[in-house]
Design brief:
This protein is an all-alpha fold. Helices cover 62% and strands 0% of the residues. It has nine helices and no strands. It is elongated and about 60 Å long.
């Protein structure tokens, strides 16, 4: 195999890895060998496109993180009324996590630091959620947005890992209760504007 082949193997490698994340995984990208096997190439072919397994991992996570941001932003763009947009954002976040369990685990259940390559996506979505949180908690919008994200993460993560549990309500019903609780009982903090990744 040479670099001059017409086949876009780099894209195929990323797509194959993403396909393998259709089910919950240990917190690691599928092995380089298994990804190469899914593309029908030798493991050595991967190195034409990625200098290391870590570079392939980063490309996969970049693609999946961009997918999450796009899903939430698209849902928000399609929402009609501002007072329901926090619910819309939560529903989209939860739905994406449920549909991409392995990728969700890699993004949010790993101890790895969030690489700078994904920085262009995160702050944009974070700022939007904070502005929506300002509508229900003008005193501490950042803290409220972070609290909501923590709750959304819990809804996704527990449902991925505890599939046998009876939750007594749908994930969407849980999200509506969370947003309603935030709106009726504002969260106070002295660090309301301290930045972090969302």
């Amino acid at each position: 195999m040479t670099k001059t082949d017409n086949r876009d193997l780099r894209s195929e490698l990323v797509a194959a890895a993403i396909g393998m994340l259709a089910e919950p995984q240990a917190v690691a990208v599928p092995s380089l060998r298994s990804i190469a096997r899914a593309c029908g190439v030798a493991p050595s072919a991967v190195y034409w496109h990625f200098p290391s397994e870590a570079d392939l991992r980063s490309a996969v996570l970049d693609a999946e993180y961009a997918s999450l941001v796009e899903a939430v932003e698209s849902a928000l763009d399609a929402a009609d009324e501002a007072d329901t947009q926090l619910v819309v954002a939560g529903d989209a976040y939860i739905a994406w996590g449920a549909a991409h369990p392995g990728a969700y685990q890699l993004l949010f259940e790993s101890g790895d630091a969030l690489p700078e390559t994904r920085a262009a996506h995160g702050p944009r979505l974070q700022a939007r959620i904070v502005e929506l949180a300002r509508l229900v908690d003008p005193d501490a919008p950042f803290a409220s947005a972070l609290l909501l994200w923590s709750a959304w993460h819990g809804v996704v993560s527990l449902r991925l890992h505890k599939t046998e549990w009876d939750w007594g309500m749908t994930a969407q019903d849980a999200n509506r209760r969370l947003v309603q609780a935030l709106a009726t009982g504002r969260t106070k903090t002295t660090n309301a504007d301290r930045p972090t990744a969302l």
